[in-house]
Amino acid sequence: MMADDHTEAEALEPEARPADPRAEAFQGVREARRNELAEDYVELIAELIHEHGEARPVEIATKMGVTAPTVAKTLGRLARDGLITRAKYRSVFLTEEGRALARECQQRHEIVLRFLLSLGLDPETAERDAEGIEHHVSERTLALFAAFADRS
Amino acid sequence: MMADDHTEAEALEPEARPADPRAEAFQGVREARRNELAEDYVELIAELIHEHGEARPVEIATKMGVTAPTVAKTLGRLARDGLITRAKYRSVFLTEEGRALARECQQRHEIVLRFLLSLGLDPETAERDAEGIEHHVSERTLALFAAFADRS
DNA sequence: GATGATTATTAGCCTTGTCTAACTTGTCGC
DNA sequence: GCGACAAGTTAGACAAGGCTAATAATCATC
Ligand SMILES: [Mn+2]
Ligand SMILES: [Mn+2]
Ligand SMILES: [Mn+2]
Ligand SMILES: [Mn+2]
Predict the structure, then answer these.
(1) How far apart are the first and last CA of chain A?
(2) How far apart are CA B105 and CA B110, in angstroms?
(3) Is B44 part of a structural domain of the chain?
(4) How far is the CA of A68 from the C1' of D28 (A)?
(5) Which residues of chain A lie closer than 8 angstroms to B21, CB-CB?
(6) What's the mean per-residue pLDDT of chain A?
(7) What is the domain extent for residue A67?
(8) What is the tens place of the pLDDT at every residue in B86-111?
(9) Within a domain: residue A109?
């Protein structure tokens, strides 16, 4: 056994699909994309709880710029994934896991924002770009952003 | 006519939905998200044509890290949207519009990548982060990135 | 404590983007 | 020119994420 591999020069990693270096990058981006919505939601929910004491779907809908049914369906997925808890017709709470994710997202958001501002970007554009960029910044990049923003 | 607006102090923009400032940011990000895939595809197709003289679905699939049927369906949408042309069982071509978008994406990608590298990021991480970040960078931010990368 | 407005949910539709399985076409060697 | 194998397409499933329309619960307020 264990002698039927690489007749030529492949089958080294136990990865899924060939995985050309570029393909890996795209797969990573697709992975990040799958978490964007959850990240934005838990971040917003944490903020609403902090500011208003509670997070109500109507407020989430307003701040996210989507309709109430969209929020309801998304909250269903977040609950399924263990990030929030909720009772019918009541406001939303973060689980421990949700709180941890929210904290992480808030920090990341803040670092990316500070970084863009320190580059000289106007606040509105910075906020808008940060909202998109934050989900695609690796730990390593984030560290560089933080360092740059600090020394500025 | 035209006298039934703003009883209090609203209805100023002919926008869709209230649009709290944050909501606008999220809507902008969602908009950007809708174009990500098309951008990555036309960029890759342009590159394949440049390097190999033609862009074949099998190569697109490998480089994007997805299966052939996924590519087929996506190419269908790109054709519908006027970015490419194709004949059955033949390779893919960019329309004028597709070429214009590809050029823009290539430039953006290159600037974001150079910027990350000039910050001190390793090439692999830089490539990966650039692949995600490029779609969420405004013109203004891009200009700052380019300036920073140049003076470095 | 009835009732009307606000908030929340449910049902159902649509598009995108991914996959597997099965089939068709094209191409290259002989 | 034929046959294998590679490449491409089609069919169909499924989840996410958006929407509208209709229904249900909550709450304020009288
Ligand atoms: Mn965001
Ligand atoms: Mn954010
Ligand atoms: Mn990309
Ligand atoms: Mn790119």
Answers:
(1) 60
(2) 8
(3) yes
(4) 22
(5) 124, 127
(6) 91
(7) 28-150
(8) 999 999 999 999 999 999 999 999 99
(9) yes
Nearest to A17 among B19, B33, B65 (CB): B65
Does A137 sit within 8 Å of B24, measured CB to CB?
Answer: no
Asked, for residue A127, whether it belongs to a domain, the answer is yes
CATH number of the domain that residue A50 is part of: 1.10.10.10
User: Smallest CA–CA separation between A50 and chain B, in Å?
Assistant: 17
What is the helix (H) or strand (E) element at residue B116, kind and residue range? helix B96-118
Structure tokens at B63: 């480089």
The total of structural domains in chain A comes to: 1
User: With a CB-CB cutoff of 8 Å, which residues 74-133 of chain A face chain B?
Assistant: 116, 119-122, 124-129, 131-133
Q: How far is B80 from chain A (nearest CA, A)?
A: 23
- Pairing of β A84-86 and β A92-94: antiparallel
Closest listed residue to residue B80, CA positions, set B90, B95, B68, B66? B95
pTM above 0.85, yes or no: yes
The mean pLDDT value for A6-35 works out to 73
Q: Considering the domain boundaries, does residue B85 fall inside one?
A: yes
